[in-house]
Amino acid sequence: MGKKYIESKSKFDGSKPYGLEDALQIVKDASYTKFDETVDLAVRLGVDPKHAEQMVRGTVVLPHGTGKQVKVLVFAKGEKEMEARDAGADYVGAEDLIEKINGGWLDFDSSIATPDMMGMVGKLGKILGPRGLMPNPKTGTVTFDIARAVKEIKAGKVEYRVEKAGIVHVPVGKVSFDIKRLYENAYAVLEAIIKAKPASSKGRYLRKIAVSSTMGPSVFVDVIQVGDLFGKKERGS
Question: What single DSSP character describes residue 69?
Answer without folding.
Answer: -
